[in-house]
Amino acid sequence: MNIKISEFIEGAENAQGLTVIIDVFRAFSTACYLFEQGVKDILPVESVSEAFNLQDVNPEFLLLGERNAKMVKGFNFGNSPTEILQHNLKDKTIVQTTSAGTRGLTSAIHADEIITGSFVNIEAIIQYILKRNPETVSLVAMGYNGEIHTDEDYLCAEYIKNSLLGIQSDFESMKEKIRYGSGSRFFLPENASHSPSSDFDLCLAIDRFPFVLQAKKVSQQLCLKKILI
Fold first, then answer.
1. Residue 44 class from Cβ within 10 Å (0-12 exposed, 13-18 middle, 19+ buried)?
2. What is the dihedral of CA 206, 77, 85, 29, to 10 degrees?
3. CB 105 within 8 A of CB 54
4. Cis omega (within 30 of 0) for bond into 26
5. Scanning 35, 44, 152, 217, which has its CA 20 to 30 A from the CA of 80?
């Protein structure tokens, strides 16, 4: 198994084989919590305008996402798992657009298969890859806005790679590094309204979910589907 770690939009564009698009804070952690809250489908899109267009055609769709970590004006939800846990979303369809994660999904045009990456379902991701046993695995750490290195995404990629190679990672040490590195933004008072500190713990609740999220096109629309492991 050839395992490659790359970063940012460029990494997604060049990814091959079974590709894991990683966005820990917060796109793909939030996506897992959305399924826990009962959503039927998540439709990832690259742009805000695409999200509004989908809702214009399907008024029952709910819009979720952010730009510069803040909820997009006119959307139903921001990109916060804390916010999601306050709502019953049974059988709802969510259109999601974020600054990094969903852009990574739509950019991975050369991948054989795409799944999302986060710590909250990391063991399921590892077991899924081992079961699939692909020749090539691309782990893409999306970073902030798809262009700035972040500890959480790169360490998530390293954790997955280590596990696939039979090497144990020290998650608590990783969590500490994230807390005082790129994750410190969740503890700044000026960010509390859109990036609450509770999101930090929710996004790093390791192995909370026993499923992977696979991105596949359905009627030309990218859709996240839950696969139980």
1. buried
2. -10
3. no
4. yes
5. 217
Paired sense of beta strands 2-7 and 62-67, if any: unpaired
DSSP, res 72: P
Cut 0.85: pTM above it: yes
> What number is the average pLDDT over the span 100-124?
98
Q: Which fold has domain 2-228?
A: putative 2-phosphosulfolactate phosphatase (3.90.1560)
Pair of tokens at residue 118: 């986060």
Neighbours of 62 (CB within 10 A): 18
Among 66, 88, 94, which residue's Cα sits nearest to residue 193?
Answer: 66
Q: Structural domain boundaries of the chain? A: 2-228
Contact 37, 84 (CB under 8 A): yes
